[in-house]
Amino acid sequence: MSAASRAPQRSNRAFQYSAGAPQRSTRAPRAFRVRRRAALAAGAAAAALLLSACGSGATSGGGGDTNFVTGSDGISTVAEGERDAAPDLSGKTLEGERLDVADYRGKVVVLNVWGSWCNPCRAEAKYFAKVSEEYADRGVQFVGINTRDTSTGAALAFEKDFGITYPSLYDPTGKLMLRFEKGTLNPQAIPSTLILDRDGKIAARTLSPLSEERLLKMLEPVVAEK
Fold first, then answer.
1. Which SS3 state, helix, strand or coil, does residue 78 take?
2. pTM of whole model > 0.85?
3. Confidence band for 72, pLDDT divided at 50, 70 and 90
């Protein structure tokens, strides 16, 4: 090989390794990659929730080891002794006060996931306001989970319009809903309603807006349990 043909090669090497400087890796640090994967996973879960937001609802039947059965009315139920405990559901209410659903242990709890922007939520709100007052002296506590409202103002106006007096946790990004384990009676749509028994376990769920009759159909069997 002639000296002339070797010159460009030497020139390229000199460009790559000039002054003995080490090459820099273009690969991101491992900690960054781990954080990025976690963020993508959380984003995917939140996106899945948003896809089901504020629809007419969906149904899913029991199968495998899920233990729940879904009726033709879209209400899923689990027999006593086979129920899963609700996750930690605590945080600030719309009014800025601290609330922990676990503090209501010993009562039947009605959890309603809603947003002020959601028309089906508006359609069912008057029934929740009515039944929450009628069952207050029967050991029943209603708790809302307000989500995807970017501020509390619209949500508080919603409660005032419909006469809702029970508290709602403020969960604008849906983090509380993502705490429910996959395969349990978890909220998968907006609105969703869950009934927790007196031991804090999930007894029933629906993924569609409720009339007063359907709300009572979910609630009364759990209230009747001893």
1. strand
2. no
3. confident
